Amino acid sequence: MSTIVNTFYSVPTTDWYISIFAISIISFFLLTVEIGIKYFNIPLIYTRKFIHIITGLIICIVSYFLFSNLPIIIFATFYIFVDLWALRKGKFKSIHPDSRSFGTVFYAISVIILAILFWDGNKSLFIITNLILIIPDTMAAIIGEKYAKSFFVPVGEKKSLIGAFTMFFLTNLIIFTSLEYFYDKPTEINLVIALIVGAIATISELLSIRGSDNLSVPLFSGLFLYTLLVAPDADILWTIVIGSFSAAGVAILSYKLRFLDAGGSMLAFLIGSIIFGFGSWAYTFPILGFFLISSILSKIGKSKKIQLESTYQKSDVRDFHQALANGGVATAIVLIVFFTGFDTMYYAYIAALSAATADTWGTEIGIFSKTKPVLITNFKPVNPGTSGGISFIGCMASLLGSMVIVIIGSLFYEFNIYQVIVVVLSGFAGSLVDSLLGATIQGQFKCETCGKFTESKVHCNIEATLVQGKYLINNDFVNIFSIIFSFLLTFLILSKDIL
User: Fold this and answer.
1) Full-prediction pTM beyond 0.85?
2) Cα–Cα distance, 76 to 344 (Å, whole number)
3) If 0-12 CB within 10 Å is exposed, 13-18 middle and 19+ buried, where does residue 424 land?
4) Confidence of residue 207 (pLDDT cuts 50, 70, 90)
């Protein structure tokens, strides 16, 4: 208790006065707009953006004069609870025209995280990342809604090219101008940094749904800005430049070859920029091996696989959720290694990719089994494509896929025979866990129109009936859980080598 009291007393009194004054101004604008909506019919489409800009600018201005981040953290935390209450009760229509969006909550969370990470020694990054969210993101939404003639859907919400261009251009302008003011770096370096972070912020916004860009845009922008400006590695700038360009090439090629859809390609760019840029060749080649070979396998035997597409939840063109499930854990490990130097986590990294590869190869090759698969829970024959079904050829393919990733990893990092066996079997075990979850808790549905059993919640353009498992547990959840299982299993067994 004394520590908490001392922390409060350590905040200068002027910080509290400034913060309270700022909150009063924000509250005044909020109440004014609420009155305008009630009595003057101000369109809701503009009120949220107006409040967002005013709030963000005030936070940026106030933070410039504050010594402590504690007032911002406290007020932002309090606001989260008030905002959740308002969403539930349908209050404050000026900032909640759409009750399905949690953008205002996400924004408060991002302010707290950025204040904790960047305040001491890097307050300028706190200001820059907030400015990116305040101006480019808001203007992209306004211009996209007003001038866009066509839209596309990367994940679950409509986006426009003119909105994306606006986001990219204004983000570049803000970052370049801010770096020229806050940092003593050559102009050409500031321009390169602005272009990279502008692309990262734009893709983060395009992949957002339900206001999640208020969290993803500042966090991804802050991650890259911190690394490019503060990280001690002098060569990291050009490593990230090369990594980002390489990731862009892979993403575009994957989209052209129909390996990934638009959302999957955009996420591949983000994942690739982090793994290629923050990792080394040792991290790059295993994930490239997984992705390229698995994508090629998905195209083999197309005519046979088309027959089962109505059963599977996904097609051979992978989407955002599949890319996240297969690459999300690996990306997190790369960041942990980069910021901690904990390079023995490489074994767990390879295990995560081995599990993803084993599951994918087992599915893509197992479909060619000449005998019916059996359900992993009772070994009774089931139709091909049934969740939880396994076959001998599918299991052998899973084991081979896990071995291939470990072999690629061993070219860059030393493995002894024991470590090889552990990682290979962990990856293979992950594929079995995937099948087990698929047979037990993954949602299985029956189409009332055609009578087929399927993983999809919608079939023949109508909602299918849940017949087994949990409604919210889908194939992507099962995939990521099995990958985490392999990661943890390897970490526990090889804990002496890793720790």
Assistant:
1) yes
2) 38
3) buried
4) very high
